[in-house]
Design a protein that fits this description.
Elements (H helix, E strand, L loop, with lengths): L3 E5 L3 H13 L3 E5 L2 H11 L3 E4 L8 H10 L8 E5 L4 H9 L4 E4 L4 H14 L11 E3 L2 E4 L4 E4 L2 E2 L4 H12 L5 E2 H9 L7 H14 L7 E4 L3 E4 L3
Parallel strand pairs: 1-2, 1-3, 3-4, 4-5
Antiparallel strand pairs: 6-7, 7-8, 8-9, 10-12, 11-12
Helix pairs in contact: 2-3, 4-8, 6-7, 6-8
Length: 228
């Protein structure tokens, strides 16, 4: 499969369980039990994805994620948080810091593999030709190379945020439900994660601030990008 996954977990039983399932699926694995050491590994090894526990010695997982997303060398590495902290506020904080997905312990290894495949798929170069450059007033979106500009200013989005913006623009004027966005952008639907969409919409609005109000909330349904 030629994909490398760094697993960061201080519980040896969970670490070995995750590593076994990943290697059984053909992934190359790296492992770390310490937050600070995992950052060094991420910088030097450039894994394709991080499975990250939150309760870690040295530096907790939230701080690891925040540090990675601020470092250009690791900012584009997708992160799946794997943790016993399952309250909605914990998930929202994780997504606000740039996590791509969030799985609560105890977890199903099969579900973890599903999440990993979906996140990796979102970060793959498109197998088929993507649409040409999209424009909305002074904003240009280039699907082929994941670039967004407002005027001449580049706007840095995560892959998830970019795909969310792309879907809304491609369906400009039409309401996109949260389930539709989950299925199109995340690659699957999962119960209780509608707030995931809301969190990413909020982050997207902040990053495209001049056009934040053009992403309309359709109460009780989802979101729509204005046609004008």
């Amino acid at each position: 499969m030629d994909r490398t996954i760094l697993v960061v977990e201080d519980d040896p039983d969970i670490l070995n369980l995750v590593i076994w399932h990943l290697e059984s699926e053909g992934y190359r694995t790296l492992k770390s039990k310490d937050g600070r050491k995992c950052l060094e590994t991420a910088i030097h090894e450039k894994p394709d994805l991080l499975v990250l526990d939150l309760m870690l010695p040295g530096m907790d997982g939230l701080e690891v994620c925040k540090t990675m997303k601020r470092n250009q060398a690791t900012a584009d590495i997708p992160v799946i948080m794997l943790t016993a902290k399952g309250e909605e506020v914990d998930r929202i904080v994780g997504f606000e810091l740039g996590a791509d997905d969030y799985l609560v312990k105890p977890f199903s290894p099969r579900e973890l593999l599903l999440r990993i495949r979906a996140v990796l798929r979102r970060h793959e170069p498109p197998a088929q030709q993507r649409p040409g450059v999209l424009r909305h007033r002074e904003m240009t979106v280039e699907p082929e190379n994941y670039k967004v500009h407002i005027g001449r200013e580049p706007i840095r989005l995560t892959v998830t945020e970019f795909n969310l913006l792309l879907d809304l623009l491609q369906n400009k004027g039409r309401v996109r439900s949260r389930d539709q966005l989950l299925d199109r952008v995340w690659g699957y639907q999962f119960e209780g994660y509608a707030r995931t969409v809301d969190t990413h919409i909020r982050r997207l609005r902040q990053k495209i601030a001049p056009y934040a109000e053009d992403i309309e909330t359709v109460r009780g349904v989802g979101y729509r990008f204005k046609e004008t």
